[in-house]
Design a protein that fits this description.
CATH architecture: 2-Layer Sandwich
Helix content: 10-25%
Largest sheet: 5 strands, antiparallel
Structural class: alpha+beta
Shape: elongated
Distance between the termini: 13 Å
Number of strands: 8
Radius of gyration: 18 Å
Number of helices: 3
CATH class: Alpha Beta
CATH topology: Fusion Protein Consisting Of Minor Coat Protein, Glycine Rich Linker, Tola, And A His Tag, Chain: A, Domain 2
Oligomer: single chain
Number of domains: 1
Length: 139
């Protein structure tokens, strides 16, 4: 008998997409820290624990006949209104598992968007989902 170990790991990375001033990007010594001042990252409603619980509750992993373990990384954009768009599997494991990870992320409710100076901005996000099946030994 196989035991399924599903451990979603979250909040791996955040990239903010901004409209940079061309004059600022022409200079190689630009202080980019001002782009990250007063920045609040996007988050799932209820925080990390709520997102973890959402992933566990809503995932319907296919039955696999071999031992598999690894991480699936899903990238997506969070729009100013909190909707998720531009889904991409950055790192896959197996087609059926990748499809389920992508499905559950696409079904997410709206997130709280990233804020810069209190105003919503578009951002990108990466979610690593650890997946493992292990064979149980009979004692």
């Amino acid at each position: 008998m196989k035991k399924l170990l599903f451990i979603p790991a979250i909040f791996l990375s955040l990239t903010v997409i901004s409209n940079a001033n061309p004059r600022e990007t022409a200079c190689p010594l630009v202080n980019i820290s001002k782009h990250y001042q007063n920045l609040k990252p996007p988050h799932f409603p209820g925080g990390e624990d709520a997102f973890h619980n959402y992933l566990i509750k809503n995932s319907k992993w296919p039955i696999v006949t071999t031992d598999i373990q690894g991480i699936i990384i899903i990238n997506f954009a969070i729009e100013k209104d909190g909707t998720l768009t531009e889904f991409k599997i950055e790192k896959g494991l197996k087609r059926e598992l990748d499809a389920e990870a992508l499905r559950v992320i696409r079904c997410c409710p709206k997130w709280k968007p990233a804020l810069r100076n209190g105003k919503p901005i578009r951002s990108t996000y990466s979610v690593p989902i650890a997946y493992s099946t292990t064979a149980l030994s009979a004692n």
